[in-house]
Amino acid sequence: MALLTAAAQLWGAKNTSCFVLAARHASASSTNLKGVLANLIPKEQARIKTFRQQHGKTVVGQITGIRFRGHSIPECEKLLPKAKGGEETLPEGLFWLLVTDQIPTEEQVSWLSQDWAKRAALPTHVITMLDKFPVNLHPVSQLSAAITALSSESNFARAYAECVHRTKYWELIYEDCMGLIAKLPCAAAKQYWGHWIGPTISPTC
């Protein structure tokens, strides 16, 4: 493209358009994707730069910060239950708020914590799979694989195959979500332990 433009300048301004058209045709007909992108990307970069210069200070909305069901982070820190002797809100409390739009009591948070603990054990096949991963496999890849493998425990999948009525979907999805959330800490701990420390860790954490 640059060579064609330079040649056009040497040949004369009135013939420049011919060279530009030839350059565009060469770009469009090229079978080398990287070569096509090399011609297109600088134009797009220039367009974005111009847009930022013209509209970079335009206000599109007021920044209010993160809110959970309408509550700011400082409000959540004040309203949600904390562990005895602790200063930080418990994750179970925030989960309850997100799901129900209600500030939970300490009893409700305690119930949720116990419920997750009962569901936390990993199935044997997930543990075996994590043990067999090479140590250089990225931890996030391992965790993603573990989550996918946990689909074997899905209540929804089994019930869906049996044509359960759709009014029951939410209960099955609830059970699957609660089970997955409960197992995530064990799955993450298992792959971390195997990657950094050794090959064994209790499936119940």
Automatic annotation (TrEMBL):
- Record Pfam families: Citrate_synt
- What biological process terms from GO does the record include? carbohydrate metabolic process; tricarboxylic acid cycle
Q: Which domain of life is it from?
A: Eukaryota
Q: Which GO terms describe its cellular component?
A: mitochondrial matrix
Q: In which pathway does it act?
A: Carbohydrate metabolism; tricarboxylic acid cycle; isocitrate from oxaloacetate: step 1/2
Q: Which GO terms describe its molecular function?
A: acyltransferase activity, acyl groups converted into alkyl on transfer
Quote the PANTHER family the UniProt record gives: CITRATE SYNTHASE, CITRATE SYNTHASE, MITOCHONDRIAL
What is the protein name for this chain?
Citrate synthase
